[in-house]
């Protein structure tokens, strides 16, 4: 794990966008396509505002969220909506987006269908993750039912998570899929998350799910 510290969040956003663009370009030099999984929420949006203009052959990039709340794409809580509005614009508008949510279905009924869309893209070329102060990443929350299966070495591509702290089910890429990505980046802000990351390094993944994906991770931190 390598930690890069920045003076402020604006500098972080610019540099991380440049690194992600570089990782994608490097992958495309040797492969027909690149797969790119990105965190939802508010953490990555300033990065997306820079990355969307990167001079990449976006037509060869397949983009997905690392996890998705089981809500319609019109919802303010939809990661797909945020990605479409903040990343799939400008030059990046020509990338292919792989959605997880299927309207009018429960997540367990469509896992195999969605996994079949993702499996040809594995291992992921590049992944951008966030982390909560509770040391969760994607939708792998400490103590949630099904976490052990999502952390297993033989875990399926996707896992359904139903955290008590959240109002809806979530579908998440499993830890083995996230950890196997060729280039991995984690963005965290503030002292509390920096301390949580240090704590996670000495805990088992069941207590600190982020610990399951830290091998060869580049961590980007700003106050």
In a few lines, what is going on in this structure?
The protein is an alpha/beta fold and 223 residues long.
User: Reading side by side through the largest sheet, how are the strands ordered?
Assistant: 1-10-9-6-2-3-5
SSE succession: EHEHEEHEHEHEEHEHE
Q: What about the largest sheet?
A: 7 strands, parallel
What portion of residues belong to β-strands?
15-25%
- Based on secondary structure, the structural category is alpha/beta
Termini distance? Answer: 19 Å
Stretches with pLDDT under 50, minimum 5 residues:
none
In total, the number of strands is 10
General shape: globular
Tell me, rounded to a whole number, the average pLDDT. 97
> Helicity, in percent?
25-40%
Question: For the CA atoms, what is the radius of gyration?
Answer: 16 Å
Tally of contiguous helical segments: 7
How does this model look, in words?
There is one protein chain. The chain has 223 residues and is of the alpha/beta class. It is 31% helix and 19% strand. It is built from 7 helices and 10 strands. It has helices at 9-30, 45-51, 79-86, 107-118, 147-151, 175-179, 190-200, and strands at residues 2-5, 34-38, 61-65, 67-69, 96-97, 126-129, 158-161, 170-173, 183-189, 218-222. The chain has a 7-stranded parallel beta sheet with strand order 1-10-9-6-2-3-5, with helices on both faces. The longest helix is centred in the N-terminal third of the chain and has 22 residues, at 9-30. The protein is globular, with a radius of gyration of 16 Å. The model has no long low-confidence stretch (mean pLDDT 97).
């Amino acid at each position: 794990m390598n930690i890069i510290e920045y003076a402020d969040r604006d500098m972080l956003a610019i540099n991380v966008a440049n690194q992600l663009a570089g990782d994608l370009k490097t992958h495309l030099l040797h492969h027909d396509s690149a797969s790119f999984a990105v965190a939802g929420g508010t953490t990555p949006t300033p990065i997306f505002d820079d990355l969307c203009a990167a001079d990449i052959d976006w037509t060869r990039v397949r983009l997905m969220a690392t996890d998705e709340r089981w809500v319609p794409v019109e919802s303010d809580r939809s990661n797909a909506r945020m990605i479409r509005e903040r990343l799939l614009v400008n030059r990046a508008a020509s990338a292919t987006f792989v959605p997880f949510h299927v309207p009018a279905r429960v997540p367990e009924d469509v896992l195999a269908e969605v996994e079949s869309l993702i499996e040809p893209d594995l291992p992921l070329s590049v992944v951008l993750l966030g982390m909560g102060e509770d040391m969760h990443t994607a939708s792998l929350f400490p103590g949630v039912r099904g976490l052990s299966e999502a952390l297993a070495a033989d875990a399926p591509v996707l896992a359904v998570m139903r955290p008590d702290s959240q109002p809806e089910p979530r579908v998440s890429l499993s830890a083995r899929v996230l950890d196997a990505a060729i280039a991995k980046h984690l963005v965290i802000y503030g002292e509390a998350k920096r301390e949580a990351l240090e704590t996670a390094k000495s805990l088992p993944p069941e207590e600190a799910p982020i610990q399951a994906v830290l091998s060869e991770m580049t961590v980007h931190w700003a106050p």
